[in-house]
Design goal:
It is a single chain. By secondary structure, this protein is α+β, with helices and mostly antiparallel strands. The protein has three domains: 124 residues, DnaJ domain (Helix Hairpins), CATH 1.10.287; 215 residues, Beta Barrel (Thrombin, subunit H), CATH 2.40.10; 87 residues, Lipocalin (Beta Barrel), CATH 2.40.128.280. The chain is 25% helix and 31% strand. It is built from ten helices and 20 strands. The strands form three sheets. It has an eight-stranded antiparallel beta barrel with strand order 13-14-15-16-17-18-19-20. Strands 1-2-3-6-5-4 form a six-stranded antiparallel β-barrel. A six-stranded antiparallel barrel has the order 7-8-9-12-11-10. About 16% of the residues have low confidence.
């Protein structure tokens, strides 16, 4: 059956360039699912994407669909490549002939050895790393185990690839982690990355919030249990017996440079397989090693997702956002995977935040600032709460409603007010990572975790 290029990508003929790029990436990921790789389908998706992403080629193709050119308006799988080369073959052939003549003239009279060297320089481009300002040598950890790359980690220079290629490689290995209470009701979600056969890595502040876990991949939900919890590093290893997804390649923070491009893949706000692009904005030393600061955007639900370098290697595990700054996101280094052991909360994340912010003010008015993910099964106030230093608050409720309010903290009372009324919430517990609010009579509570 003949198909147009738009039908191959599954987009409308009026789709934007961005929509075409997303459709191509999605198609490539679907065509490379385990055990069912379709090389013909992959070739069609790449060629359709290239033609429709180029304004000139797309305009010519659109004219052919409306009868403005001699090219046939539809295309079948076995006709796509011949049709493309019939359109552009003459120009490509002429260009190759011209390049050959130029090469012959430039190398005439030279020996074969220089010619070989010239060819090697053409096919082997040099990758120039960003300059890093000189500074004091990195502090070596006192414990020989801490900071060492995990077994099998690669320190070779990364071969730069596009975002869609990286996504196609890693998307089958990134999952959404669902957290349930004892009754099976979902109370939280996060992200996870496959690091070994039947093994998913995620953040402990995600996995330890409930009593039951599932991980969602493209082929459905799979039950999971905590195999190893290193709460001091905020890393938990999950056992997923029914898992059939491949493990990602694991890199090391030692291969990263400030300014290098990276990609975060996870399930922000529960949206499976979301990729965001950014750079390494800084590499910061803490007692346990080096934490990665990045501009790759993350949101609630991104915790436990992967931070990948330009070759698709896992270099970090997304974990938290700075509670005051804008676009200041942090990932724990993949090097820590090999150092995991059963440990209680030491919360390296919070020690780092305190060190980055200077002296810490433990008053409720300061601790409440930032973003919180809150759950109240009885109160009906579940959602994402954001408290700004200027006294403004934004609440994105679980039902999709968004409210803008004013707030004030007085002692252990959080006062919320909007044009329709106000309410006082009693602060029963408030730390840098957790807040429990009493929302009224009956002992109804709102339990919040820092995001």
């Amino acid at each position: 059956m003949k198909q147009t290029l738009y039908q191959i990508l599954g987009v409308d003929p009026k789709a934007s360039a961005e929509e075409i790029t997303v459709a191509r990436a999605r198609g490539l990921a679907e065509a490379t699912t385990a055990g069912s790789q379709d090389s013909t389908r992959l070739s069609l998706l790449r060629q359709a994407g290239e033609i429709l992403s180029d304004p000139v080629q797309r305009a010519a193709y659109d004219r052919s669909l409306t009868g403005g050119a001699t090219r046939r308006p539809t295309v079948s799988y076995d006709e796509l490549e011949p049709a493309f080369f019939q359109t552009w073959g003459k120009w490509i052939a002429a260009a190759l002939v011209l390049i050959g003549l130029i090469g012959w003239w430039a190398t005439r009279g030279k020996s074969s050895t220089p010619q070989k060297a010239t060819a090697e320089r053409i096919v082997s481009p040099t990758i120039i790393q960003p300059r890093v300002p000189a500074g004091p040598p990195a502090r070596q950890p006192t414990d020989a185990k801490v900071g060492a790359p995990p077994s099998g980690a690669s320190t070779a220079p990364a071969a730069a690839r596009s975002a869609e290629d990286v996504f196609a490689d890693v998307s089958r290995s990134v999952a959404r982690v669902n957290v349930m209470d004892g009754s099976g009701r979902a109370i939280a979600f996060g992200s996870g990355v496959v690091i070994d056969q039947g093994t998913v890595l995620t953040s402990c502040h995600v996995a330890t919030r409930g009593t039951a876990l599932t991980v969602k991949f493209s082929d459905g939900l799979k039950p999971a249990t905590i195999q190893l919890a290193d709460e001091a590093l905020d890393l938990c290893r999950l056992s997923v017996p029914e898992l059939n997804a491949p493990a990602v390649a694991i890199g090391t923070v030692e291969g990263l440079r400030t300014g290098q491009r990276v990609y975060a893949v996870g399930a922000p706000m529960g949206l499976d397989l979301t990729i965001s692009e950014g750079i390494v904005s800084s590499l910061r030393n803490v007692d346990e090693g080096t934490v990665i600061q990045t501009t790759a955007p993350i949101s609630p639900g991104s915790s436990g997702g992967g931070l990948f370098d330009v070759s698709g290697r896992l270099v970090g595990i997304m974990t938290f956002q700075h509670r005051y700054g804008q676009n200041l996101n942090f990932a724990l280094p993949a090097d820590w995977i090999g150092q995991m052991r059963a440990r209680g909360p030491g919360d390296a994340r919070q020690r780092f935040v305190a060190g980055a912010e200077g002296p810490k003010n433990d008053s409720p008015a300061v601790l409440v600032l930032g973003q919180w993910s809150c759950f109240g099964s009885i109160s009906g106030r579940s959602g994402h709460y954001t408290f700004e230093p200027d006294g403004n608050a934004t609440i994105a409720m679980a039902d999709g409603k968004v409210a803008a309010l004013n707030y004030r903290v007085s002692g252990k009372v959080l006062q919320l007010a909007d044009p329709t009324g106000s309410g006082a919430l009693l602060i029963e517990e408030l730390t840098a990572s957790r807040m429990v609010l009493n929302v009224g009579a009956g002992g109804h509570r709102l339990v919040c975790d820092r995001r």
